[in-house]
Amino acid sequence: MLSKKVIVITDGDEYARKAIDYLAGEVGGTSLAQYSANPTTASSEEIIKAVNRAKEEPVYVLLDDAGIQGVGPGERVLLDLAKESSITIIGAIAVASHTRYREWSRFTFAIDRKGEIVAQGVDKEGEREMEIGRISGDTVYSLDELDIPTVVAIGDIGKMYGQDDLKKGVPITRKAIELILERADENEERE
To answer: What secondary structure letter does DSSP report for 2?
Structure first.
């Protein structure tokens, strides 16, 4: 059995749910936004079953720790997804946050709120940070432990001072998904 291709999004609020539902319709794939919450309440088992039932790939899984320090509920699910042989995580969208506990992760690309690919991390508003190659967020702690081929750092999905608004087609989040899919295709061709 071929493994299901999954893109993990480290945000689970209403803006992220609406954005991912919309983009799954635009770009293709299956949104599991109905399992998202802030923080994640669905079990790993529920989400793994839903991924394996999905008709279209990639499958978008929204996970959120809601500021819980260390490995919170969203990250527990992420770690379980990564261990599941029926699932391949082809990429992750690492969403910045203003968390009290500054968890961070490395990333492959960052996209600022103007839609430009930048070397620095970005904050919740999509503004460039001083830090090169790292993003702070509340559900990013475990990303570094996993072998995820493409991690794209962005500001808060559906927001960023209106630059990623649903009315505009959530262009920053869309670009992040397109980068992940592009890289996944290139990796497949190399294999």
So the answer is: P
